[in-house]
User: Fold Lipoprotein from Mesoflavibacter zeaxanthinifaciens subsp. sabulilitoris.
Amino acid sequence: MKHLFIILLLCALSVSCKDKTDQSLVAEQSQQSDSLNIKKEDINKINYVDIGLDAKTNSIMPTWQAYQTLSDAVQSLKQADYSFFNTDIEVFSTAIKDLEQTIPPSIKTQSIEARVLAFKTKLLNLKDVNSLDFIDKKDILFATKEVFVAFSNLNLQINKKLEKDSQNIERPY
Assistant:
């Protein structure tokens, strides 16, 4: 009888210990998922120079639909909305391919093509980082910052191209 009582007591202790570890594991997982949720405040803490397009681009940019699509995606990214990067891979890939293939002829230079390629690379990197299950929040924020910087550099290059084209420099000879 004494042995039966000890065995029952040990079984009860082992079962109750397991419940506590399960509860602590669930609590730990919920804390971890909360720490991975990226909020608008986290995005606002990212330090980069945000360069927009000049008014001179108004005649060219509305016709470049792929740019407008990805510009909207970057704007939603600034609101901590990663839905564009979680969409179907076909939609994402098509938008990126269209960006490369439909550069307006008036701004199609090697420097702008290089900036588009860099922007494409950063978009793909963010999509990959965002799709991973076990990733730190700082890695996602770093990839987000890289997308913002690449987009700003693309805008800067477009602005520089149109500024240079608008200058009428007369040669002395």
The longest helix spans residues 2-36. The chain has a mean pLDDT of 84. Helices lie at 2-36, 40-44, 65-77, 83-86, 89-101, 110-131, 137-166.
